[in-house]
Amino acid sequence: VACVRYPSRGAIAPQLLQEMVLRLAASVFLAIRHARCDEMAFVDVSSGDKIAIRSLDGLAAPMVGAQSLFSSEPMAAHDWASRQDVVASLEAQVGAWARRDTSPMGSRLSSLRDELSPLYGALPKNEHGRLDAPTARYGLHRYFMKRYGWSVKGLEPAGASWMRSVDVDDEVRQMSKHIVPSYLQELASQKMGNRKGFSLEWLVILAATLQHLAHIEVTDYLYSVLRTLGYPVAGQRSIEEVEDIAVAFMALYGFGIDLEVSTKQDVRHAESHLDAHHLGWRELCVFLKESLRASPPAVLDFNGTQSFVENFIQHRYSEFLNRDCAAAAQHLAALPGGRDLGRVSTNELRATNSSGRRVLFAEDAQELSRLGVVEGGGEAHAAQLLVPNYLLSPAMCLTTAGFHAVCCRSSCDALLERVEAVARGLETTPDVVATALGVDGSGLSPMVGAGGTVAVHSRGFAQWLHRSHPFDCPAPSGHSLTSPRTADEWMADPGADAAATEDMIAELSKVFARYTTLGSSGVEAQEMTASLSLAPAAEVSVESGRRLSVTPRSAAQCFVGGLPQIAAVVSMVIVALSRARAALSSALRASGCGSAKVAAIPGSLV
Q1: Banded pLDDT at 219 (limits 50, 70, 90)
Q2: Could you give the 3-state DSSP secondary structure of residue 571?
Q3: I need a labelling partner for 517 at 20 to 30 A (CA). Which of 77, 244, 400, 547 fits?
């Protein structure tokens, strides 16, 4: 202690000790996390009296440094949110709304209300004049895509499929980010005391809560970056230090590096590996540094760094992706049928990295089919790729460690907005549509109802939009629950099969990993890849269709389940203390502090 506190008397090798402590702390943290007694689970309710429970409490296998770059689920460690944070964020926004005339946060909510009001007025209402839950999620999706280019995780219909068969009780601590939006809706409904739907006020509160969750998560990740790289939280920094912090932040946020179990050396190794093997990473670093140099924070402290990072992920990261979106659109438009028909033969597709950052069109026929972006196909004819469906699919998105993925913006939403702006209500005449879009509206005739109008959010209208704007507007598909493309698909009933939520998460993870991972071949990948597996399914006998509560395991189950981790930690503590004692002894003798000081470490422990 004297040598550390008074460097003039000699210096102990701090890097060695710091790394040993961090490794030990990470191991203890993981052991506790794996052995803890609270669980979140999805429950598959069969037609009989059996259900299969699969654990979803965030027990991802630890991946140190660059290991996540070779994982099939690079964001596995980050796809979880604290239930308490979710509840607290909602409570904060409800309180801010009540004080909106007197508080800065309330002023922000009033501005958000002004932004959402036109969209709210244009969306279909239920018999109570409010939005039902699927329509509210669609409204949130429209807002976040237009504002930030974000596809918020769990706003898809399948993100709510779990709600009719699973309850989240107060003992749950961690929950998948893919169920947070629907869980927020459930909490909001309880606060409203009714199930009549969501008013504009509540749509604003839900949007603000998701924004707030993203904000506090960025703050938490930034603290993790500073801690791992050894930067103090307080004080001024140089522009080079802010660059270093921002680059490490994007390694976490864009590629899933897990700082909970990684040291500074691990982060540097991961960055070097990305530099050497990932073109997209190199371009991202250049883009990031150019953005910082062009608009540096006024003050280079923690708040300034946080402000820059938040602005980058809210606005600049989508601009970075737009280069790929534009390159893909240009390439497909040049193929036969691409621009005029919005369809190209899959035989014409070739994997390309013309954008210089990522390989486009690398999916095989099976993957394209799962994405819902092809139609037709057989022995005589090749399948047709639906151009707008592909451009708006997860295949073109960049996943993040946050509550969203960054995706290509839909030009069709802009067309729909023009119709919504002139339509009087939810239905309008073909002439009004034709005038708003500057096209021939005669094709709408088959969809005209008894009042001479067409519903602007119907499936039929979506089909007409695709025919009239084949390059811009997606065609309705058969994947509405997990990969909705059109308004009617976004507002579809989610059903009651919790497996649909799980399937959506698994499919999105697989698609997103194509960009973030570097593959799993080669000796280095095999050495670095951590094994990932779901907790084994458990058969539980319940009444068919019963609504279930997610509750903690018993003390005995927790103790037995945690024994391997506890034993591993005990052994690591013994080894670590033994090494620390030897290192301290050598360092203290070299520094002149005297070997007697080593007696402060109990010999019985080593």
Answers
A1: very high
A2: helix
A3: 244
